[in-house]
Design a protein that fits this description.
227 residues, mainly beta, Porin, four-stranded antiparallel β-sheet, 2 helices, disordered N terminus
């Protein structure tokens, strides 16, 4: 799925036009909010080659996944807030690319990327629509890596010993843009687009390695409650 940032910009423009049209309650200094939503996480992969004895140009691609997400935010001021995003692990399928495109599924991995954001929310707390931007610290944690027989055939041709692999966990940063809409004094909904800068390395049981640029983009649709 291609995430179109132009759509986000359009939404922010609509929010600006409607910002002063109501006196609905919104997140303000000292207020805690919680929201539940759905997040589609799509890696934007640029793969390095698996080192020899794999064929030159042996690359990989990573599929997207959608999972529920739970997000808490706290207003430091009327315009500045912190936000913590948590969720269940994302389950990604790994496919052959480059010289082995069309090979099929090489393996699977689960990823858990908790992120702590610092946000700036535009307009006053009474605005019905509030665009926001943020920057966050993300810890990308990978687990349950499993290779298929196709991975063994690619990394160690002719071997009967299954190839296993691991992906390095990494700290990184994530950029955020979104807009929140108040339904009433307590309930609200929002849409958020996040983009992380993520570089990591894959290590195989055969001693081979592979550099990966993942740079995942997430789109979150959520409904929340103001305490």
């Amino acid at each position: 799925m291609k995430v179109r940032f132009k759509s986000v910009v359009t939404m922010l423009g609509v929010a600006a036009a409607l910002a002063c049209a109501s006196t609905a309650s919104a997140q303000s200094k000292g207020q805690l909010t919680a929201k539940f939503g759905i997040n589609q996480l799509t890696p934007k992969v640029e793969s390095g080659d698996i080192s020899a004895p794999a064929l030159p140009g042996t690359k990989a691609d990573v599929g997207r996944d959608t999972q529920p997400v739970l997000i808490f935010a706290y207003g430091l001021t009327d315009n500045i807030s912190t936000e913590l995003a948590l969720g269940t692990p994302y389950k990604h399928r790994i496919y052959g690319a480059g010289a082995i495109a069309g090979t099929g599924e090489l393996g699977t991995v689960q990823a858990l990327p908790p992120t702590l954001f610092l946000q700036y929310r535009f307009f006053q707390p009474s605005a019905p629509f509030r665009p926001f931007v943020g920057v966050g610290a993300t810890y990308a944690y990978f687990m349950k890596e499993r290779g298929s027989f196709k991975m063994t055939a690619v990394t160690n041709p002719g071997s009967n010993v299954p190839t296993t692999f691991s992906i390095d966990n990494k700290f990184t940063y994530t950029l955020q843009a979104g807009v929140a809409m108040n339904f009433n004094e307590r309930w609200f909904g929002d849409v958020t687009v996040n983009k992380a800068h993520l570089r990591t390395n894959v290590s195989f049981s055969t001693g081979q390695t592979q550099a990966m640029k993942l740079d995942p983009v997430s789109v979150v649709l959520a409904v929340g409650y103001k305490f």
